[in-house]
Structure formats: C-alpha cells, structure tokens
Design brief:
416 residues, alpha+beta, Heat Shock Protein 90, five-stranded mixed beta sheet, 66% helix, 9% strand, phosphoprotein
C-alpha cells in the first residue's frame, strides 16, 4: 500500500519540481538524494537568481549615480568603486554554492565600495537562508558595527547621520529576519516530510505485525481444529491397517468414524477459509468453543474408542470468561489428540477445577502405552501453540513426561 502511494505521489511532485527550490528538490526527491550530486537549479532558482542579480545591479547603478554627483572624489576612486560593484554583482551568482564565503567577502568590499552595497545585502540574505543563525549573527554584527564608521566616512548628503544609521540597521535586520523566515519555512517542509515518512514506515510496520499476528492466529486455529479430526482419521486408519482381520462390527465402526471425522474436518476447513475470505477476525467467523463444550468433546473422544475420565469441579461454569474457557477447551482438545496419537488404548484423565479469584487449572494426563505403538509423526507445534495461548490469556502451561512414564499437560489460567 505504501509503495502504491509513493508511485502515485512521485509523478505529481516531479511535475512541480520547477516550483520548489533546488535544495528542497534534492531533499524531497529520493533519486536526487541518492545520487550524491549537487542539486541542479530549478526554474524557480533561475528566476530568483536573475531577480537578485538585477536587484544588485539596480542598487549598484543608484550608487554609481550618487558617485557621479559627488565631484569631490577623484576619477580613479570612482572607477575602482564601480569595478568592485560590477564584480560584486557578478559574484551574486555564487550565493548558493558559497553563501558564507560570499557574505564574508562582501563585508570589506561594501565598506570601501558604495556600488557593492546591494550585492552585500543579497549575500547576507542568502547566508540567512542557507546557513544557521550563528553565521548570520557574526556577519550581520560586523555589518552593523561598521555602519557608524561607514557613514562617518561617507555621509549621505540627503539624510542626517543618525537617520542614515538607523535606516541601514533596520534594513539589515529586516533582511536577516526575512532570510531566517525562509530558512525556517524550508526546515518545516523537510520536517513534515520526515514525519510523513516515519508515519508511513510505522503504518507499514504495524500492518506487517498485524498480518503476522493474524497468520499466527489462523495457524493456531487450523491446527487446533483440524489436528483433532485428522488424528481420528490416522488412528482408525492405522487400526484397520494393522488389523485387517478385525470383526466386521469394528471395521464398520472405524469406517464410520473415519467418514464422520473427514466430513467434520472438511466443514471446519470451509469455515476457516470463509473467515479468511471475509477478512474477519479469528473470533468473528464462527462460534468459538467454551468450557461448556468439554462434555461434547469428551463424548466424541469416547465414541472414537478413547477411554476418557472427566473430573470437572468448577464453582461457576457460566461465569468463566469466554477467552479462558476457549483456551481451556483447546488445551483439553490438544491433550486428547496427543493421547490418541502417541498413547492409544490408554485411559486419559481430564481434570478442570477452579473458581473466581483462584483461577482455573486444567490437567490432561495419560499413562504409558502398553506394547508397540504405531509411530505417528509430530513436530510439537500443538504444544507450542498451547503455550502461546496460555500466555496470551495471562496464564502458564507446563508439559512433559510423568513419573509413571506417561505424559501430562497442566495449565493455570486467570479467572477474575
């Protein structure tokens, strides 16, 4: 989704690059930022540079006119002043590449050349736009400090000394303030760009995390639902394979269990796929089992030929939270599935006890099987999923061999 948004906004920005300064284009355009080369001037840059150059030339011409009216100056000094003014105007084109060097160089030049004053002010503005305030403070401070000496050396014939001094100081302050405003506006645009990128990155990471959690939840649900059914198929098919001479009633009963388990597994798979297509959460797609469904689960296992002893001592079965009851159901379901797979023919003991405030304890145990047991492959993913479910519910789960050689699963879940 983020890639599509970038692909949609990139052409819009590319079509309006002429409107932005080259420094912003270099920062905002990913290809320009990765190239490592200096940003090329945009149309806006050329317009602004020409305007600055023409302004410097205009101020220089005004200064040259004032020099021509002053007949006390020798012709050589007037010519040198105009040459310095012309060079200063030409140097305005370097304000983007070397703003600090140009501003420093124009300080002494503007002090001795009246026609260089416009170029000096433009260089000071460029310095305020492209460099931090400490550089602007030094150069602007030197300008202000030299102002009284400049007007003492070259007094303005049309204005008093104090008025000329105040006017130039105000002009320098206005130019510095304007340049700092332009700089802060550019930094604001860049900061908004960075915030937008961070927001897109965080949104993408949150989406990926949500997808990963959804995949894990779906994987747990499919394992819990289908493993129970498929284990019945495997156990009864294995019994038919190892006992082809079994009585007809046993064969018919095993075939019926296989058929029913296959039908229910297919139905469960259809329901899960329907949830995926609808985009709903794990809990919204179909009715979730609760602690009250333990009796049905045990009856189903007994019908499949498993001896199950259910010891249920719950103070308030209706008051068990739905998430806790669902977790307890899945733990018992996985315990019965593992017992059928790895210890067929044994008696499985299921114990559920607890009450509000003290928590819910779920225990599934089976003794060691007798004789040779057909090997049923397993990767232990069911027990890992049960541990994750217990932790998500705020409880704990322990599993492992018992002292008599059997296997047990014990979980403690919070209640209240």
């Amino acid at each position: 989704m983020t890639g599509d948004k970038t692909a949609q906004t990139a052409p819009v920005f590319a079509g309006r690059r002429w409107f932005f300064p080259s420094a912003l284009v270099h920062e905002l355009a990913p290809d320009a930022a990765r190239s490592g080369r200096r940003p090329r001037r945009t149309v806006r840059d050329w317009v602004v540079d020409f305007a600055c150059f023409l302004l410097a030339v205009g101020v220089s011409l005004l200064g040259a006119e004032a020099l021509s009216d002053n007949h006390d100056l020798p012709p050589g000094l007037v010519t040198a002043d105009q040459v310095l003014g012309a060079l200063s105007c030409a140097a305005v084109w370097l304000r983007r590449r070397w703003p600090f060097a140009l501003a420093v160089a124009t300080v002494p030049v503007s002090f001795v050349s009246e026609t260089s004053g416009g170029a000096a002010l433009i260089a000071l503005f460029a310095l305020a736009v492209h460099r931090p305030f400490r550089y602007v403070a030094w150069v602007g401070g030197v300008h202000v400090a030299l102002t009284p000496l400049y007007f003492w050396w070259r007094p303005d014939p049309d204005l008093p000394y104090l008025a000329s001094l105040v006017l130039l100081v105000v002009l320098v302050g206005a130019i510095v303030g304007w340049g700092m405003f332009v700089r802060s506006k550019r930094q604001l645009v860049l900061s908004l760009r960075d915030r937008a990128r961070r927001a897109e990155t965080e949104a993408r990471l949150r989406a990926e995390q949500a997808q990963r959690l959804a995949r894990e939840a779906i994987a747990r649900e499919m394992h819990d639902v289908l493993a129970h059914r498929l284990t019945l198929l495997s156990v009864h098919a294995g019994a038919l394979e190892f006992r082809p001479d079994a009585p007809r009633e046993d064969v018919a009963r095993a075939a019926g269990v296989i058929r029913e388990s296959a039908h229910e597994a297919l139905q469960d798979l259809r329901e899960i796929i329907g949830v995926l297509r609808a985009g709903d959460s794990d809990d919204a797609g179909r009715p979730q089992p609760t602690l009250a469904a333990l009796g049905t689960l045990v009856a189903e296992s007994r019908q499949a030929g498993v001896e199950v002893v259910l010891d249920r001592r719950v103070a308030d079965p209706a008051g068990v939270p739905a998430s806790v009851g669902r977790t307890a159901y899945r733990i018992v379901q996985e315990g019965l599935t593992n017992a059928r797979k790895h210890a067929p023919g044994t008696e499985v003991t299921v114990s559920v006890a607890g009450g509000p405030g003290e928590g819910l304890t779920v225990t599934v145990r089976n003794p060691a099987p007798e004789g040779d047991v057909p090997h049923v492959p397993g990767a232990g993913q069911g027990l890992i999923g049960l541990a994750e479910r217990a932790v998500l519910a705020g409880g704990t789960l322990e599993h492992g061999p018992t002292s008599d050689g059997g296997f047990g699963v014990r979980a403690r879940l919070p209640w209240g």
